Each structure stands twice: as structure tokens, then as C-alpha cells.
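yo

u said u wanted the structure for the complex thing, so here. seqs first:
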Amino acid sequence: MRYKLMVVAIFVGLSILLAGCRWSQETDDVAFITAIGVDKAEGEKIKVTFQVVIPRAVSSLQGIGQEIQGGPTMISSIVAPNITEARNLLATSMSRTPNLSHVQALLIGEEVARSGTGDIVSSIMRFREYRGGMFMVVVRGKSEDFLTSTKPKLELLPSKFFEAFGKSSEQVGYYLRVEVHDLYLRLKNPGGSAYATYVGINPLTGEDTPLDTKMPNDKAKGYLPKDIPRAGTENPTEFAGTVVFNGDKMVGAIDTSETRILAMLHNDLPRGVFTLDDPLEPQHEVSLNMRNGSSPKIDVDLIDGREVIKINVFLEGEITGIPSGINYEKPEYRELLEAAISDVVTQEIQGLIRHTQELGSDVVGFGYELRSHFATYRELRETNLAELYKTASVDVKVTTKLRRTGLMWKTSPYALTATSE
Amino acid sequence: MEGLANSLTKIISSLKNLLIYEPPSIPTPFVLEEKQSENESEKPAESSALTESADELNQLLRFAQHLEATIEQAKSAISQEPTPDKIDSILQQIKVLEAQKAELSPILLAYNSGENTESRNISASLEENSLIIKKIFQVSDNEDIIIRDFFIPTNPPRKAMLVFTQGLVDNKDITSSILMPLFAVKELSGDILEFLITKHLSSNQAKQVKDFQAIVKGINGGDTALFVDGANGAILLFTKGFEHRAIGRPQLEQTIRGSQSAFTETLRTNITLVRLTLRSPDLVTKMITLGKRSRIDCAVMYLQSVANPDLVAEVKRRLSNISTDNITAGMLEQFIEDHPGIPFPQILSTERPDRVSSHLSEGRIAVLVDGDPFALVVPISLFTLFGSPEDFALKLPSGTFMRALRYLSAFVAVILPAFYLAITYYHQEAVPTDLILAIAGARERIPFPAIAEVLFIEVSFEFIREAGTRIPGLLGQTLGIVGGIILGQAVVAASLISPVTVVVVAITAIASFSIPDFRMGMAVRQIRFLFIIAGATLGLIGVASGLFVVLGVLSSMKSFGVPYLSPIAPKTTPGLDTMVRGPVYRQEQRPDELNTQDQSRQPPISRKWEKQRTEGGNVTDELSTR
Amino acid sequence: MSYQPGKMGVAAGTAIVFTTTFTSFFLSVWSVFTDQAATAAWLVPSINAVCFLSLFWIVLYVMQRVPGDLYEVAERLLGKTGARLITLYFITTFFIDAVLTLRQFAENTLLTAIPSLDISLVAGWYVLIASFYVYLGIEPIARAAYIVLPVGLTALTLLLLGLYTKFHLYNLRPWLGDGLGVLLKSGVPSSGFYLHTFILAILAPAFQNLRTIRTAALLGIGLTTIFRTLTLIMYMGIFSVEVGREKVLPFYEMARLIYLSRYLQRVEAFYIILWVILGLATIAIDLYMANYLLTRLFNLQSMRPLILPLAIIAAQLALIPADIATAIELNVKADTIYFAAGVLVVPVVLLMANLIKGKRKAKSCATN
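structre next:
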């Protein structure tokens, strides 16, 4: 009797195992999509561009890993009413099932961003194959062009390219790594406004087209993608600046230096090199490597229905270059330098806030700090924090301390030169 | 005419011989036929009623003949002048016959002949005894048993007989301690056997026995039996002296530090080795005979003051209640364990005496079987199987590190291929993009599905392993290495198997070899195949369900009343010996689950010298500030 | 009786309590809390624990006066009918919990692991393994749960620590959510989630004494509450209310967000192992208790013939809710109404009966 029972149990178990086996997918039955781009097409449709990676290109087996013509990826653009339909249509052109669990970046063309990204993002958050950790990027131009021209020479695969881009943002601050998850949170929760990374294709001509909102004393210019003066053989794509949203519609962009300030206010700037006029010899420039000393203290208050913001930033710095040869390591000179950089940063913060108030987008997230002023959540939900931000008054205070001076602790002046007629 | 006919016949027959092929006459090949008889009766013909009565009558007849001969002698002696010698011899014969008479009452006779030959009592007549011995040992066919008849030189001489097995006895011993003293006996008085044992026989162990069962056991073991005419019993003398293997190094459980002697096949030597390491008067050995035909001795050893008496009684009960023909230690394990169907071993088998003695002092029981160099230790838990004999010699960090490594290797050996298959089949999102692309790229040209690859390589490794154990000596080891390397390399180069699979399976195989216990390793290997199937069909769900089921099976097992996963599962006081190997001087309690009589084995402070003051000299005593 | 529960100690008791109360946390319960109590949802487990423990103490107090396990206590105090009613109630609670957990875990599997599998197969597989464990008895279940416990807790702690960078304290403000009233309205009925701590009282003969039961209950509920609170704090801090109440699988989504470096990411697949094991353990415990109480109720000789039919019935019932939203709603309704009723009613009734009986005895003694 016991054996009969065991046999029955084994058969039942075996039938379930075999049923599960049906849904297994070999690694050579799936095609990994590593990036998705969304552009506007005529009518109500969108043009979806898929970037699929070819595993043969990364294979270690001999005789297989030779250069595949056209690079290790293939690009396919499909016009469809939405992304899901586009994916269905993609499967008609490939011999393998598309697999979306390794999508590294979601690129949205500027047109689509300006008309509203809500439906795209929400369908992504629902389907289980997409992950919230995808890089969220708005392309200045068309995302199809962006994907076709991304040919990184340093990386073997563009997927690693996108994944690794997040790392280098920490070192400079000229662009931020934004994930779809963060965007979605900001869309739904009352508080701040959403933002995304701004990318573009550089014409690689070396032309210099900075924005003209410039801070005095800041020698670095603010750029948006496509404008950076660059030439050479490397990748024409570049990540620079941040796109700001109001709700789910893009309303404008902030450039690289403003992005750096944004990162600083988010306590997310491990390294950022500022270049400013030398206080004592304005024709030379001093470069300083700044980072957040501690988290910026942001106090937001609601006084008479008006939002009052007090920002207190504490920076630490390291001197990385003194071309003028002045001994800024001495305390009194150092204080000059500290005052100068604090001044520059203060003005940049005020500039950022002004710019975002014009655009009506609270990217820094002051609305979040306002939450504790409400007694219940319902009140919070019914208050329009974005409107409040537009008329907020801001008070900024920046303190800098220069801690390190690089390899030299005392700069000696240059030797005397001969007088020239 | 006849000559012509003759020659014609000759010609024809020679032609026939030339032309016709006659097969050589070979005898028909031997075929083991079914037994003709239908009935399954085991009783040999001797116990049928007719043969019984024939035996009785024969015995009576022999007695009658002896009686008649004695009467004749007495008659002739009385008619002539009797010499004192003759009178003595006749008197002796009468005494012998008297002694034998007691056995010849009809009831006893019927009882004796009805019984199995072996369970009969020893008769007083040497002739009867000799006949019985010849029947029991099949002496007509069996040339190993030697029967040495001789006369004890009393006045008148007494017949006596020595029975022993050639090869099992030490010949010098028989000569010097049995025959020589016996040939110097001048007179016999009182109880013959008692007299000989206490006054003449110089063998160091001598025992009187009354029935043939003891005789048979003794002779089969290497003792010598001494029968004397007229004595109502026999003497078993210890003369064991067979050839055996010397104490050698342990083959399977080698250590770097620690003793290098291992058990041999002789039971007495093994018991000795254990006693040498645990010289306590409390160490008790009890012998139990196993097997109906093999009659192997097994010794049960335990510390009387420590081991739980219920446990001891249970072990003895199980051992004495096995009935089978032939038994060795490996088979004994399966006979007495609680769950013989589950591959996990519930009895520890070791060939090192120091390991046995350390387990005995924790309160466990050891069973040693004659003829097997492995001792069985009961009861154990899963974690005992993961201890190597080196553990006692290592310090705290190394001990813990080695333990952790072993547990990790056991886990890896079970799970790794199943994990790999689950992830490549169902959970491609579970690994970073680079890794999955590397795996996918490596598998582009492979014609087999992943599960076929894994099974193929696993089975090949099992072939190599099995082949390596069959080939002796150095060649076997090189075969393993060469086979593995060449097989792996060639199969990858031919694009039959992806390199990732080879790596995964190779790591698994090596991990499974680092499990100290051999049977545990085999259990792990079997479980691994089940996990591979579960992982390849249901992904990580299958792996998790498999883990859960194995956990359940392990938690429900008991080894001689002790749950298999103590001290973790029923949470008993841990003794710093399961996961983390504590320092030796802090192992104060015996394992809680054994419920021993005496729980503590070390006082809280074992290193007493630390608290003492050093004496002598002007050493500033920092201990005084503690 | 061949289905004696055997002997268990504090460790096994803690494991049982923790498993049955915490496993619902792998399902959609958090989203419901977040929906009801807004930003103060993280206080709900503590309220649950306080409510429940105070009522459970009453039961233990009564059991101190009256010997035996819960069935015998009820029999002595309320008569045979009362005891039978209570046992019937508990059988239904265990069965409902088993069925709903089975359904939700099967949905969970489909959503996270193998999307295209048929749900009846998954439910059948889970129930097959759970019934294997029921066949083995409560001791192996408790021991297996106890072994998995530290591993699971460590994994949870690592999860919480790994998400530290995404945590923002401002998401938890305003502190009191929608007000204390809403909080209590959400917190008090949901102490029904802790109903199955009563297993300790039902299986009382297996534990050495009431002190063991008390320690096990405290430890188990304490652990559950601490971990529930911590995970809810983390969840609210990362997702806040609006996004938090949408999720069907909060735990899975949280695990998905872990990104510590290029190689320490995508760990949610390994958490599948954890919740599959804990889910199977919960279903096994529930089915075992249902079986055990049925045999107790009808005074049957053995539990074994009942295992398979109950398992099949559970699997069939699990497939009845039409979709996952209905299943979640059913679960919440069952826990907050039906189970909460048991949590409130049973101890109070027993206490009343004890007091009345005590008075009656005093009266009868006094009149003598």
C-alpha cells in the first residue's frame, strides 16, 4: 500500500515537474534587449527603437568572438501605438524571444517628453520584466539617432556603457544618474518634481555653444548636450545636464553647472572641480575640488501661505591648481579663496532656484521638507506644492572650508624673469 | 570373400572417418539444476524418527559392548591372580562406565538424540564425544580439524583427546602449555577437569564447558578442546595464534597530527587499541554473537558511569535480535539503524581508535565487529559526521574555519548545478548583464540544452571516479587527473560542452570530495541529481522546495533515539562543537542530547595553571592583579 | 492517539509563531496597511502586537487555572458544545489561512518566477509538499522552521541595510498619517494576523510548561513585530504612500531595488528561496493544525487518512477567487473580521467562564 502511494505521488510530482519544464528558456532562445528608445511618430503612434545585444560578440570561445559587422548590437525601430505592441512586433523580426529583464536604459525623445511621459512610465512599472533600476534619459533630438550612433570604443557592449555611466556621474556632477523608479516616485508622491538625465549627440566639430546664463567669476561654462566643444574619434553621444519636469511633461533643462549644484543640494557630490577667477589675480584661474562636507541643511517653512526656504550648505574643498603661484595655503589667503568659492556657489544656487521657479519645477525637493508641517496626510495630498514653490523665497548661506592642498603645502612664487622691452 | 568384405568395411570406415566430421566427445556442461524435491524442509535426514531411534540404539549398543568387555576382563582377572595395575585399570573402566550410565536413562537419551547435535551436552564417554565431534565438524570431508588422541600417563593411563582447528591455533602453545604438562600428570583425583585446570594445565585461560555449542564456538575461534574419558565435560584452552595484519596507518582518515594507528581485523586487537587510549576501569566490553552461520563476535563498548543505561539496553537489544546468516560491519550498520532507506548515514564508522575513545567519553557507544577494521559509533547527529579527526588538534580559529569550509562545501556540492540550471533557464534576470551575456555567448555553439550538458559531465565525472577506484595504486590517481583534464579540455574544444558548465561541475565534484565521511559524500551525490532535476524543471521554486523537503526529512530522522539535527533542531545546549569549534578547554559539557549520567566533563576553569601563582624567583606576578 | 505532537521547546514554539505570523508579510498586506493608515503604517504592527498580547495573556491566565490544552480548557469551562464550537472555529481559521496563503503564494510564484505556468499546477505542487510535511508531523516542521529562521532574518536584515541609500526620512512625514483614529481603526482589527499564536495554546501538552509557552509567544511575536516595523519603515521611506499602496508584491519590489555595485545587484531571485520555504512552512503548519483539530474533534484514531483529502480540498478552494485583487481583499477581510473576532472573543469568553465558574465554586464552598 505504501509503495502504491509512493508511486502515485511520484507520478503526480513528475507531471508537475514536466509541466514546469515546458516554460524553461534556454539562453540561446532569448534575445536580450539592452536599451529602449521612444520617439514621436505621426498620428498617435510612437516609434520605439530596440537595441538588442548579440551574445556571440562577447563569447570567449575560439573562432566565435570575431568582430561582427556593425558592432555587437543590432538596432530595430518599430512604429506602434505603445511599447507593448512594439515589443510584439519586434518578435516577428527576430528568431528569439525578446527578453526585457536586462534593459539598462530607457531613452525618451524630447518631443515625447514634452507631451507627457506618464503613460510610458506607468506601463513600465507594471510589467514584471522591466526593472525600476533602468537609466531614465531624455534625448535632445531623437532617441533613434542616439542609439544608432552610440558606439563606445572603451566598452565592448553598450549595456555596460549605460550601466557604467552612473558611476562616473559621481566624480564630476555634470549629469545625474536617474532611474525610472525615482522618476515614478516623484511623479506620484507629493513633494518634489521629477527630473531626468539629458543626453544628446555631439556633432564633434569642436564648436563651442554654451548657454549664456553665466555666473560671474565662474570660468566654467554651462552646457547642454550637443553643445560641448569636443572633437575626436570617441563616441558622439554625451550625457550633460538635466531635464526638469512639471508633472510628467518636460518643461525645460538645466545645464551642467546647475546640475552640479543640484547634486550638491542632494548631498550627492563626492567630487566636483570648480574653476573660478583667482581673487587676487583675476587673469588666472584657481581650480578647487569641492564636495559636501555634511548634508545641506534645508529648512522649509510655511509662513502666511508662502513657502520660505533656508539653505545652509557646508562644503569642503581641496585646492587642485593655483596657476598664479600665490600662496593660498596661508590662512589669510585661504580665507579669501573660501569666500570666493562660497560666493560663487551661493550665486549658482540662487540662479538654479530662479531658473527652476520660472520653469515651475521643484527638482531640489523642497516640498518634501514641507511635509512635516501638515497634520494629516490628506491635507498634504490636497495641497499643490508645486504652485507654492513658484512663489517661494529663498535664503542661501554657503560655508566652505578648504582642507587639503594637494601635494604642495606651500606654493613658492616663480623666479624673477628678465624684463622685456 | 570375407577378406574383401573386411577390407571394404575398413575402407568405408576410414573414408567415413576422413570425410564425416565427428565432434569431439566433450562431457555435457555443468548446469545448476533446481532441487528435485518439492518440500522445503531444512531438517536433515538425521532428525527423522528412524535415524533418531537408530542413534539411540547405537549408543546403547556401544555402551553394552564396553560393559561386556569390562565384564570379560573382570572375569578373567578374578579367575587369575590380579595384579594391582590390572585392578586399577578395571576399576577405572568401571568408573568410566558408571559416569556414562547416568546419561543413558531413556528420557535423556531420547532428548539428546532428538536435539540438534550441537546443543547436546558433552557425554562422559570419549568415544561418544569423538563420534559427535566427527559428525558436527564433518571431519571426513573437512581436513582442517585435527583430533589428537593420547593417553594421560596416570596409572592406569586415561584416554584423552585434543580437538583444534589447524591454522587458527598457535602450535607452540599447544605443545608447551597443554601436551607437555599433561604428559607429566601422574595421578588424577576428584573432579578430573577441575584438577587438571587448577593444578596442571599452564595455559593462561582455561574454561570448563558442558555442552557442544561452547566447544564448537571455541574451536571455530581458535581454542583447543580437551576431552578426557570419564569426565562429564571438556576444557577449552586459549591457544589463538592465527596470522593477522599488523597495526597499520589509517587509510581513509589520515591526519597530520594525531595517532597513526588504525583498527585491524582482529577484534581483540581493536578492543586493546581502544583501551589503550581510554584507560578507565569503567570501560565495559560486552560480547554478542551475530549471525546464525557466520557466528561473528561483536563487542559493545561503553563507559559505564557515563552512558545512558536506556541507550545501552537499546543497543544490546537491537544487536541480539538480528537473525541472519552472514554479517559484517557494513551490513550490521544497515541492520540496526533507524532509517535504512534514507541515504544519510545514522551511524558513524571510523577506523581510528582515538576518535572512538573521544566519542566514548562523550557518552556514546561503540560496536566493534570481528573481521572488520571499522568501528561503529552510535548515536550520532549530522554534525558529528562533519568532524574530522584533525579537529581535536586544531586551535579555535582554524577549527572553526575548517568546519565552516566543510559545511559550505557540502552545501555547494548539493546546490550548485541546480542553481546554475535554474538561473540559466528561468531567472535570467537574476545575474548582472555581463554575466548572463558571458554565459549566453559561451553557449552559442553548443548543440545540447543546458541540462543535457550538466548531466553528461556529471555522469562522466562519476565514471572517472569509479574507474579510478578500480585501478590500483598510482595508475588510478593519474587516471583520475588525466581523464578529468583531458575530458574537460577536449569536450570544450569540440564545442560540445560550454566551459561554464565544466567549471560548475568540476567545482561541485571537488566540493563533494571534501566531505569527511564517505557515505555522506555518496548521499550528497545522490541528492544532487534530484536537485538538478528540480532546478531544471521548476527553477528556483524547485530548488527551494527540494531544500525544504530535504530539511524535513533530516529533521524527522532519529539515530538511536537522538534527533538527527540536534543540537540545532531540537535546541539543546550547544557544546561549542557544531558550527563553531570552540577551544578545547572550554568544552565543559557533554552533548546534551545524549542525556548522559554525568553531564560535565571539565570544570569551568580547565587551565588551572593560569590562576595559580608562579612559585620561586622574583617574578612579578601579574596574576595577582587579576 | 497516533498523532501526538511530540515534544517541543521554546525554539520550536518561536519558530512556529514567527512563521505563521510573518509569512503574510511576503504578500500584499503592506500595501493594504499603507492604503489605510498612510504614512503611519509602520506603527500598525506594534498596535497589533499590543492588542494581541494583552488578549493572549488572558488566555494564558485562564490556562494557568485550568489544566490541559485549549480544547480541554474550553471543555471544562464551556462544556462540550462550547469546546466543539471553538474547535470548529479554529479549524475554519486554519483552513482559510492555508487556502488564501496558498493562492497568494501561487500568484506570487507566477508573478516573480515562472510567469507562464498554470496556477493549478503551482497550487498542486505546494500542497503536495505541504502534505508531505503534515505526514511527517509538527516536530519536523517546527525544526525546519527553526533552522530557516536565522537565515531568513539575516537575509531580511541585509535587505534592509542594502536599501539604506534609497531611504528618505521625509517620506515618513507627516508622522501620524491621517490621524490617530484612522491608525487605530486600521491597527486594532488587523491583530487578527496574529491569531495563529493560539497554536501554542492548542498544542500545549507538547511544551513543558506555561512558562515555555509564554516565552515562545513573546519571542515569536516580538521578532515578528520588530521585523514588520523595520521593513515597513524602510518601505514607506523608499516608496512613500502613493507608490506604496499600488504594489502587489512589496517585498519583491524592494528586493529588486538593491543595487550596491555592478555585481551586487539583482538579488531578488535569491529571496525567492526564502519566501518559498517560509510559505511552504506556513501552509504545512496550517494544514497540520486543521488535520489535528479535526481528529481531536471527532475523536479519530489517526490523522493520516485525512491528510490527502484535506490537501486536495485546499488546492481546489484556492483556485476559487477569480483574480488576485479579489484574493487580496478576501485575505484582508478574513484577517480583520473573522480572525480578529476570534482574537477578541475567545479569550474574553474563557475569562468570563473562568470567573463565573470560580464564583460558583466559591459559592458552593461557602455554603458548605
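Chain C touches chain A through 35 residues (CB under 8 Å). The mean pLDDT of chain C is 87.
cya
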